[in-house]
Amino acid sequence: METRVAIIGIIVENPDSVSQINDILHEVRDYVVGRMGIPYRERNISIISVVVDAPESLISSVSGKIGMLEGVSAKITYSRLTNDG
Predict the structure, then answer these.
(1) Does the pTM of the predicted model rise above 0.85?
(2) Domain positions in the chain
(3) pLDDT attached to residue 81
(4) What is the DSSP string of the chain?
């Protein structure tokens, strides 16, 4: 199965959505390479970056599910690398 390395950038403006984000990411935990969360208190938002190595369809699905949550936006940046090199 071909996989891609990508970063899912998430901005959370509604703190009530955080547990749903965590649930979604937990479902794909085997594909997560790393995760970093930054609370930006001055603006009352959180920024999360998640690095994944997964099939493109799964990455797109995860980003879409997260982006549909209230007060949350998500975007993907893909590496040009595939697991073929």
Answers:
(1) yes
(2) 4-80
(3) 73
(4) ---EEEEEEEEES-GGGHHHHHHHHHHTGGGEEEEEEEEEGGGTEEEEEEEEEE-HHHHHHHHHHHHTSTTEEEEEEEEEEETT-
